[in-house]
Write a structure and sequence with these properties.
Largest sheet: 6 strands, mixed
Number of helices: 6
Structural class: alpha+beta
Radius of gyration: 17 Å
Order of helices and strands: EHEHEEEEEHEHHEEEEHEE
Distance between the termini: 8 Å
Number of strands: 14
Strand order of the largest sheet: 3-4-2-1-14-13
DNA sequence: ATGGCTTGAGTGTCAAGA
């Protein structure tokens, strides 16, 4: 099973990139964040024509998450279980026996702001959700745009970013909590090039200069981590005209009996 | 450089992202 996560920053704008990418990359599951549309504007037909089943949890203008899968999507869940939230940031489903949780975690704006407090509350609720889900599904992936750079090596200029949004200690502590719950960071299961990132600011030629952050992640339960053979960032789509500011991250899993 | 782009909303020019 190949599973990928990609913050597309508006699916309506990025649909051609997503369709081209799916045609070139035979992934079994693709998790999308920032679709920025309600169901009415969501391109279900185009994605189904490309061979994917689709579930979406969307809203107007902001946020919005979706899971695409070649196999049936079962036991779909929308939103966090015990956190009242008008923002559509989470969707989960079971695919070929693997529980897939797709999340667009809050940005937080600025350390100490109201949005930062919301981010920390949201992450605490996700921690509870993850703990419960791991009890039920031994094969689990939590993936998406975490809006957390877990370590200094995930930041192009750690000194400049120290303590700031996406890098603050409380945010990183939540990321470590997800790991402590029994997950592994798929990307760090393997040797990786230095300065590997998944997001680059649109401004100031940040992509060309590789001034990025690694904030898009796939966390795998222990049993899934044991089956993971590769995890890479695909910078290709970031080079296209009108790109998303995020690149897709892909993990390849060797599952014992795959019925995709 | 507390924003150098980009998006959605909607027709002015914001809010929000990271």
């Amino acid at each position: 099973m190949k599973i990928a996560t990609w913050n597309v920053n508006s699916l309506r704008v990025r649909l051609p990139h997503v369709l081209d990418w799916l045609a070139a990359n035979a992934v079994d599951v693709l998790c999308l964040q920032e679709t920025k549309t309600e169901d009415a504007g969501f391109p279900f037909a185009d994605l189904q024509a490309a061979g994917y089943n689709v579930v979406h949890n969307g809203q107007k203008t902001y946020n919005g998450v979706a899971i695409l899968a070649r196999a049936p999507l079962l036991e779909t869940q929308r939103d966090l279980t015990d956190f009242a939230d008008e923002q559509k940031r989470l969707i989960a489903a079971t695919v070929s026996g693997v529980r897939v949780i797709c999340a667009y975690m809050p940005n937080g704006s600025e350390v100490g702001s109201d949005k930062y407090a919301y981010k920390l509350r949201w992450l605490a609720a996700l921690q509870r959700e993850l703990d419960a889900a791991l009890q039920r599904w031994p094969l689990l992936v939590l993936c998406g745009d975490f809006n957390i750079a877990p370590e200094d090596r995930d930041v192009h200029d750690p000194l400049a970013w120290r303590g700031r949004i996406l890098c603050s200690d409380p945010e990183r502590e939540f990321f470590r909590g997800f790991i402590a719950a029994g997950c592994r960071d798929a990307f760090r299961l393997f040797e990786q090039p230095a300065d590997s990132f998944s997001w680059w600011d649109y401004r100031n030629a940040a992509f060309r200069r590789n001034l990025g952050l690694r904030i898009d992640h796939l966390l795998l339960s222990a049993d899934l981590a044991a089956a993971c053979r590769e995890c890479v960032v695909d910078k290709g789509p970031r080079r296209l005209q009108r790109p998303s500011d995020h690149a897709p991250v892909i993990a390849r899993l060797d599952l014992p009996q795959e019925d995709a």
